[in-house]
Design a protein that fits this description.
Length: about 475
């Protein structure tokens, strides 16, 4: 109903071209201004410089597959900023293909095209396709695995089950919530013990290797979970200290409300209605079960404060939710007149294309100008042995500044995020310290200010050697 049968292949190709064009334009006009995104580049560069010292770069709370592939892209291209973001862009575009294939298998081609239209212009997917975070790589592996799982359910071929297991397991090593998908998908195999063992065995292959790596580094097989829980609980504590309130109601409804914020009221209400329609018609119940199972896990982990309330974490939920909006939309179109049907389709396309593009352009991240200006100043004035201390109230800006400078990490006296904090001018930290970058209201009156731009000041430390 969205397009005639003979035009569906052309419409699919046009959507993919729109996805490529829109994301490349966004890549060219925005920056990698995101604390985790810039931090991933820093970790990858550290891995390239010191591959033999695993514990010098690993952040156990981050999945290793994304890190290894980012490091490989940087190593091959030599350009850390562009190659890492281009990898996200490539994964973001490729993801649309298995996502479309999964929907064709599990629903129908009309549903797949409606969902693909929304996905191409989905602002959050566009933004994270141009940042060096793990979201689009996670989605690519996850929905490739779900596609093969759907194929296995349709055809019963074990090779599809094995492909699904390995790909979902790989996704779990990009973002750890992929482990929730392993658990929920395994529930659909409880009546097939042999298939269940095959699935769990292959899906657990990379996670078990990662656990072994954690043991070799820290002596704790579950160090990555411990680190993740510690970081998340620290974040909750910090936000509480800043006056945030985390009531039971807020934590319970956070993820359902994120589905509303992703797509707006029309898609959200339509999606809820589509789930009801699917259950009443006894169709697509395993997809609804997958969505509700993962949503339940998210809510449970959030209530326990073991999952941060970050909208990007739930992006996979959004893509599982979309086909139920399509179910509602197709059902509605069948019940209205042809003239009204055309107007409804045009309104839908206008809402998705114009609204999605507009919100995407508004959401694109840009580095503060002081980051660029401070990097230029330091490039011009740093001597080979000079070290830098960076203190900023805007933590997302610290990693981008380090990336712009593109110098060895040992040149930053505050480089180790797990080191015990010391006073800014502690004598032990002043060996070869030459410049202090200060982005806060704090003043260092005893030191000579040599640079000022907006809230950023750079001080030169005299006689530091």
């Amino acid at each position: 109903m969205l397009v005639r049968g003979d035009k569906k292949k052309l419409f699919f190709a046009v959507l993919l071209l729109c996805a490529v064009f829109l994301r490349i334009i966004c890549l060219l006009i925005c920056d990698n201004f995101h604390g985790i995104a810039a931090g991933k580049i820093i970790e990858a560069r550290r891995l390239i410089q010191h591959p033999e010292l695993l514990n010098s770069w690993i952040v156990p709370a981050h999945g290793p597959v994304h890190m290894y592939l980012v490091a490989l892209a940087i190593f091959v291209s030599g350009n850390a900023e562009i190659s890492a973001r281009a990898l996200s862009l490539l994964c973001g575009i490729l993801f649309l293909i298995p996502y479309y294939g999964f929907l064709r298998l599990s629903f129908d081609e009309e549903t797949a095209l409606i969902c693909l239209t929304i996905a191409v212009f989905f602002p959050m997917h566009i933004v994270y396709s141009v940042l060096s975070t793990a979201e689009t790589m996670f989605l690519l592996f996850l929905f490739s695995g779900i596609y093969f799982f759907a194929k296995y359910r349709n055809l019963g071929q074990e090779k599809d089950l094995m492909s699904a297991a390995f790909l979902v397991g790989t996704a779990s090593m990009c973002r750890f919530e992929g482990g929730l998908y392993i658990a929920v998908l395994a529930l659909f195999l409880l009546r097939k013990p042999r298939s269940l063992l095959v699935f769990l065995g292959l899906a657990s292959l990379l996670p078990v290797l990662w656990m072994w790596g954690n043991f070799l580094i820290s002596g704790n097989f579950m160090q990555f979970l411990y680190s993740s829980d510690t970081i998340v609980k620290t974040e909750y504590s910090y936000l509480r200290s800043m006056g945030e309130q985390f009531t039971m109601g807020r934590k319970f409804f956070y993820w359902p409300l994120q589905l509303y914020s992703y797509f707006g009221a029309p898609v959200f209400i339509g999606g809820i209605t589509g789930i009801v329609i699917s259950f009443r018609q006894k169709k697509h119940r395993y997809i609804a079960g997958l969505l509700l199972g993962i949503l339940g896990f998210f809510i449970y982990k959030t209530i326990k404060e073991e999952l941060a309330m970050q909208p990007r974490y739930g992006i996979s939920l959004g893509f599982l939710f979309l086909p139920f909006f399509a179910v509602f939309f197709i059902t509605m179109l069948k019940r209205i007149s042809q003239g009204l049907r055309r107007g409804t389709v045009c309104a839908f396309l206008l809402y998705v294309l114009v609204g999605g593009t507009y919100v995407s352009l508004l959401s694109l991240p840009h580095n503060p100008q002081w980051v660029k200006e401070a990097a230029i100043f330091l490039h011009r004035n740093l001597q080979p042995l000079d070290k830098i201390y960076v203190e900023t109230d805007e933590q997302n800006a610290k990693a981008p500044l380090k990336n712009y400078l593109n110098i060895g990490f040992e040149r930053f006296v505050d480089d180790n995020p797990f080191a015990q904090k010391v006073e800014l001018l502690d004598p032990l930290e002043r060996v070869n310290l030459r410049y202090i970058v200060l982005v806060s209201k704090r003043e260092l009156k005893k030191l000579r200010e040599v640079f000022r731009y907006d809230n950023c000041k750079i001080y030169r430390v005299e006689n530091a050697r």
